[in-house]
Amino acid sequence: MTIRSDADLTGMTQVGRLVGLALEEMRAAVAPGITTAELDQIGATFLRKRGARSAPQLVYGFPGFTCISVNDEAVHGIPSRRALRPGDVVKLDVTAELGGYIADAAVTLVLPPAAPKARELSDCAKSAFTQAMMAARAGRQVAQIGRAVEREVRRCGFHVLRELGGHGVGRSIHERPSVPNYDDPRERSVLEEGMVITVEPILALEPTEVVTQSNGWTICTANGCLSTHYEHTIVVTHDQPIILTAA
C-alpha cells in the first residue's frame, strides 16, 4: 500500500509496533527445550490480547499463528511439538493484522553452541538489511534494494535465496511491488513516497535453490544447508525509511 492519510500512518504504526513487540516476547523465550508450538502460543497470546489477528491465517489459512522455521527451513515453518536444541538456527516470522492494516517482520536467533558460520550468516542478514535501507529512497528503482542486499551478502561470502524476497504490504500480506534480494533487471518499479514494503534478506550458507516440504507450506534449502531471515516493514520516504516494526 501507499500511505495517503494520517489514518493510514496511524494504523500501520500501531500494527507495526505490535509485531515488533510480539517478536521481542517470543525471542525472550527461545531456548533449548521449548517447542515451536509453545513459541507460537506466546506470540498469539500477546497479539490477541491487543486485538490483533494472524495475517497468514486470515489471508491464506496458515496452520499456525506465526511462522517458525529451524535450520534449513527458510520460511513458513509450521509451529509443532518440535523442541529446539542447542545449536539450532531459529527464524521467528510474525505477520499481524489490526484494524485492516498488516505488518510483517522476522528475526533469526542462533542458539549456542552454534558453529561460527551460523552466527556469521545471521549477522550478514542484518548487515544486508542495513545496506538495503541506504538504497530504499523514493524515486529510486526497487532493484537498487536488491543490488545493495546481494552486494553485502557476496562480501560476507554467503548466498541469496533468489526465489524468496520482500514485497509490498499494508492491506494484504503480499502486494506490489516485489522486492528481490538481488539485482533483478526485470524489476523496473520505482519506489514512491509513502510506499509500504518489507525488506527481508533471506540467505543460505551455500549456493542452493529452495524446495517446499510435503506439508505444502514450509520452504527449505534444497541441499539442507542453513538459512537465515531478517525482515522489517518500512515506509519509503525521500530520506531515511521509517521502520514500522521496530519494538
Catalogue the unreliable spans: none
Tell me the name of the CATH homologous superfamily: Creatinase/methionine aminopeptidase superfamily
CA-based gyration radius: 17 Å
Strand % is: 15-25%
**What global shape is seen?**
globular
Question: How many strands in all?
Answer: 15
Q: What is the ordering of alpha helices and beta strands? A: HHEHEEEEHHEEEEEEEEEE
> What number of domains?
1
- Class based on secondary structure composition and strand pairing: alpha+beta
Task: Let me know the average pLDDT.
Answer: 97
Largest sheet: 4 strands, antiparallel
- Helix count? 5
What is the CATH top level name?
A: Alpha Beta
**CATH architecture group name:** Alpha-Beta Complex
Report on the architecture of this protein.
The structure is a single chain. With 247 residues, this protein is an alpha+beta fold. It has one domain (6-243): Alpha-Beta Complex (Creatine Amidinohydrolase), CATH 3.90.230. Helix content is 32%, strand content 25%. It has five helices and 15 strands. It has helices at residues 6-29, 36-49, 55-60, 116-135, 143-156, and strands at residues 53-54, 67-70, 73-75, 89-98, 101-110, 159-160, 166-168, 175-179, 196-199, 202-204, 210-212, 219-221, 227-229, 232-235, 242-243. Strands 1, 2, 4 and 5 form a four-stranded antiparallel beta sheet that branches. Strands 3-12-11 form a three-stranded antiparallel beta sheet, with no helix packed on it. A three-stranded antiparallel beta sheet has the order 6-10-13, covered by helices on one side. α4 packs antiparallel against α5 (143-156). The chain is globular. The protein starts with 5 loop residues before the first helix and ends with a strand. The mean pLDDT is 97.
